[in-house]
Amino acid sequence: MSRHQHQQFLYALLAVVSVLVLSVKGDGTVVDEHLITCPEFTPPTILNVTELEGVWYGASRSPAHKFACVEMKVALTKNDTMVKITTSHAALNSTLLNTVKEATVDVLDLTNSNGFTVLYNLTNEKPTTYKIMGIDANKKYVVMCGYTSPDTADASFGLIMTSDRIPDKKWLEGIKDEVSKHFFNFAKDSVVDIQQSDKCASSAEIAVPVLSTILGVVYSVLRFMQ
């Protein structure tokens, strides 16, 4: 083999190795060359809306979320033509659900190729476009994404909601690993688990027992004074 042929062989070998390095991860799993962003993703045209009904808890978000104890209640209304979404959350490092937001969405909009827009009933709340990427057949989790500006990839986010407030960590890691192979909004270096606790509760749930205790003390004092 001449020197020129030897160089050509090395260049060809280098090209093959480069392709393998770019297309294969360390564990041997082939990944997409182009990760899809939320604005690029096309939701499924058929969706069983009843699978969305119930209470969902924020499990992971990318980028990080500044809230804790995030939960979303989904209910069908007006003869199953509208979806009522009630979202509650606490401040970071807190367990008191002191913020409650409500919005109503047309059922047909859930499968809109451009996503569905949610505008909560709070002052200065920006409208956010959401897309449902997938619902677990056993209603254990929902994968969603959203954005406030379709032209800015950095303005979009990924969100995983689960039916358990505190899901199994290993199980959740498996979901995050899978979606991160295909979607820009679930990059492993930016996905953060949302703080959840078995002590998460609304202010009303806490106020009722406290009020009952106070009334009980007052009643006991009054009886003692009689």
TrEMBL record:
InterPro entries: Calycin
Signal peptide per UniProt: 1-28
Family annotation (SUPFAM superfamilies): Lipocalins
Keywords: Signal
UniProt-recorded name of the protein: Lipocalin/cytosolic fatty-acid binding domain-containing protein
Source species: Glossina austeni
